[in-house]
Amino acid sequence: MMMKIVQILATSGGLGGLEQHTFNLTNELALSQELHVIAHPCYAEKFNSNVKFHAVDFARSRWNIFLLWQLKSLIQQIQPDIVHAQAGKAAELISRIRPFLPDIKVVTTIHGTKKNKSTYLVGDAVIAVSQALAQGIPNNKAHVIYNGVYPQPDLSIEHKQHLLQTIQQDFPQLDSNKKLVMCIGRLEPVKNISLLIESMQQIDANLWIIGDGSLRASLEKQVSELNIQNRVAFLGFRIDARELIQLADVVVLSSDREGFPLVMVEALQADKVMASTRVNGVVEWLPNQYIAEIGDAQGLAKVIKCALQPEAQNDFSALYAKAKAELTVQAMTEQTLNIYKGLLKT
Length: 346
Prior knowledge:
Elements: E1 4-9, H1 17-29, E2 34-39, E3 51-55, H2 65-78, E4 82-86, H3 87-97, E5 105-110, E6 125-128, E7 142-144, H4 157-170, E8 180-184, H5 193-199, E9 206-210, H6 216-225, E10 232-236, H7 241-244, E11 250-253, H8 262-269, E12 273-277, E13 291-292, H9 297-307, H10 312-326, H11 329-345
Parallel strand pairs: 1-2, 1-4, 2-3, 4-5, 5-6, 6-7, 8-9, 8-11, 9-10, 11-12, 12-13
């Protein structure tokens, strides 16, 4: 059954898990369905040629009457079977124009922790990216679909060595004989990289911080004040992060909040042991001995040390296989398509 589907991404410049999820899902759906995406013009190149892209300036307020009118007019012009609103702002915009879209089925997706989920109930179906996020949604609407990623690139030993040598040239202060702890994420408060840096005082390993954000200068200052510059490297935003993750001994997540972290999915797909704080998604997948309480630097140091032990691979080996089977873009897309088809039958 060919469907006409509109995906709405109402962010304006971010490149986090929400955006990557939408790019992957939309591009995969477009292989079998008629896909339209309404998004900020900065994302145009993220979608393949099968996707019909409609540029809208979502930097405007969700109360902006011109934004609401433009969105309503576009959807009425496209006349889709399904409108899928990704995250809170998109869901709220759709809730305001829903009276003008009486014959269209609406799906909303919850990507992050929200105290008030009432906006998402505009959806005839509500998808949550972890079990925890589905709490409070009526059973007749709630569906859990974990984020998926494409398979990791298959890198040769030579390519990995070249990557490692390149980083070592850029950061000669690092001792290449030490094990490598890696963190990938935006340098923003919610990711709490400061907690990870604090915990690394107790660990004889190098730390690569991949990502950029508003806290970079303060985090670099923290590293300097703790006098661990010879073990910490800020690599900034990297388009080859999926390749670099394959060099890690341990991947660490130190966040205060998550929906279902793509970093965890990427790490497990790359056969990498993880240590993490107790955030949504993580608690549904990782062994408990590799999870620290949120905000607990001592606890995080303890689970990182545990993850650096050789026997950790035994604890994770079954998870690697499970992630490769279940946490894929294809699985995520098939489950989403089944929800669409179910709505159109009602």
